[in-house]
Specification:
The chain is of the alpha+beta class and 510 residues long. The chain is 71% helix and 8% strand. Strands 2-4-5-7-6 form a five-stranded mixed beta sheet. A hairpin with a 5-residue loop joins strand 6 and strand 7.
Length: 510
């Protein structure tokens, strides 16, 4: 009695202290505000990057249209001269096709330039020169058709056509040069915006990981403190029923607080995590657009591309996106683990008589194909009937059998035996025996801890399964222990009361 009262007073003081809860809520609020700010900044940068990309594409379109105008005028002039020299109609067809296409290309160039103060005056001059040159071509062709070839040649020798073409070429080249300069400048702006977006998303990933680490540490610390107090009571409370009831009520309140905290953590982290995932996908699409633009520039103007830009778009951006995706995936698994613990702790237990032999055999049958692949077997002996919660028992035996199959010794066919008996009419004992890789003696307790794993990490998992099993066993009023050695298999000992007595609320054991 003298030894248990200090422990009860200490634990009660811990539960009555509101500072921890307020600190956790304040920490979560601050972290969420920071993440929302980062998400907003990412959204703004993505919009800005898209705008820069649109201007880059616009510059490319202007340059292509200007080149098309010049090429079509040259084609028209070539057809004109060929017709004058040979009087063959096929040359005139070349001229006519170019003349027919020129108005559409000129209109496209005019639409792209619009009211641009730097390019519009040059385009007006080009249009004036273009119309005069077209009229001169029409006059020479008409003279040639009517047999007045001498007059047509005189018009050409006058040099006006060459003067008009040279002037048009100068103006179109100037338009191309202006847009080339703009293209380089806008590409650099787009690359800078992309780099800022990557940095912001990387910062968001780091913040999420830090928040996850703090949250897991706080949950684990609270769980460890409650478990330590629970062990102390198990050792000292023989015959102290009143003290046990008081301690059970305190544990209930503590677990409810942990469940609320776990729900807050998982719920508040989910929203910014989804945002980061979404913005990461948008960032990945932006990177693909940049890569496409660079590929086009490499073909048309390789001298305008800087090696740093290529490396940023094709190496740095994919690497940053991969880092963010890996970080958010890890965060998502941690949130799911916390949610699973919280939900199971709130579920109400429903005692019923369980035919354990049939129940465990059904679980064994569900993993039979995995065992049969290696030539192994699962033997389920006659098991005593148990009055307990069906779902909890199925989860406990399912996790243990899955682990026995998952962690089998390579090259050795797995063999699993499940057996049990009733002892002293008060408790039922079960054993799950396997010939797997085994567990080192120093890790016998470690593997039951939350988010902790032991041995070679060559199988997927978050260190939740056995922690969940132990909490479920305790919630049913039982106990679980491990007997194992490396390379010699493992035996899990389960002890349950013959009849489950539901005390307190559904949150008695998280």
């Amino acid at each position: 009695m003298k030894r248990i009262r200090p422990a009860l007073r200490t634990f009660g003081a811990f539960l009555r202290t509101p500072t921890l809860s307020r600190s956790i809520i304040a920490l979560l609020a601050l972290a969420i505000l920071l993440l929302l700010a980062v998400n907003a900044a990412t959204f703004v940068m993505i919009q800005r990057t898209t705008a820069y990309n649109d201007t880059v594409d616009h510059s490319q379109q202007v340059r292509l249209a200007a080149k098309d105008v010049l090429n079509l005028v040259v084609d028209a002039e070539t057809g004109q001269r060929g017709f004058m020299l040979t009087a063959r109609p096929e040359y005139l067809k070349v001229h006519d096709r170019a003349v027919a296409a020129l108005p559409g290309v000129m209109a496209r160039l005019e639409g792209l330039i619009g009211e641009d103060p730097e390019l519009a005056p040059r385009l007006d001059l080009v249009q004036a020169l273009y119309h005069e040159r077209m009229q001169l071509m029409v006059d020479t062709i008409e003279l040639t058709r009517t047999g007045r070839i001498g007059e047509a040649v005189s018009l050409i020798r006058g040099g006006r056509g060459k003067t008009l073409m040279d002037a048009m070429r100068v103006e179109l080249t100037a338009i191309d040069a202006i847009e080339a300069r703009r293209l380089v400048e806008r590409t650099r702006q787009s690359e800078r915006a992309s780099a800022v977006t990557v940095s912001v998303n990387a910062l968001a990933g780091v913040l999420i990981l830090i928040l996850a680490g703090i949250s897991v540490w706080l949950v684990r610390r609270n769980v460890d403190e409650i478990q330590a107090a629970h062990f102390e009571l198990d050792r000292l409370n023989a015959g102290l029923e009143d003290q046990v009831r008081d301690r059970t009520a305190e544990l209930t309140r503590a677990n409810e607080e942990i469940q609320r905290f776990a729900y807050i953590v998982s719920h508040d982290l989910r929203s910014p995590l989804v945002n980061v995932m979404g913005y990461t996908s948008e960032l990945e699409q932006v990177g693909k657009v940049f890569d496409h633009q660079l590929a086009r520039l490499e073909k048309s103007h390789p001298e305008a591309i800087e090696p740093e830009a290529i490396r940023a778009v094709r190496e740095d951006v994919p690497e940053a996106v991969g880092f963010i995706r890996a970080s958010t995936a890890k965060m998502d698994r941690l949130i799911n683990a916390i949610l699973k613990l919280s939900r199971e702790g709130r579920r109400a237990l429903t005692p019923e008589s369980l035919p354990m032999t049939a129940l465990v055999q059904a679980i064994a049958d569900s993993v039979h194909h995995q065992v049969a692949e290696t030539g192994g077997e699962i033997l389920v002996r006659d098991l005593p009937v148990l009055e307990s919660d069906r779902l909890s028992i199925e989860q406990i035996f399912g996790n243990l059998l899955d682990n026995a199959v998952k962690y089998q010794e390579p090259g050795r066919p797995v063999r699993i035996v499940v057996e049990g008996e009733v002892r002293d009419d008060q408790h039922v004992h079960y054993r799950i025996i396997d010939n797997g890789r085994g567990v080192s003696e120093r890790d016998h307790e470690r593997i039951f801890e939350l988010f902790r794993r032991a041995g070679k990490q060559d199988q997927p998992g978050e260190g939740l399964g056995l922690a969940f099993v132990r909490n479920s066993v305790r919630r049913l009023g039982g106990a679980i222990t491990l007997e194992s050695a490396l390379g010699q298999g493992s035996t899990f000992h389960l002890k349950f009361p013959t009849r489950l007595m539901v005390l307190g609320t559904a949150g008695d054991n998280l």
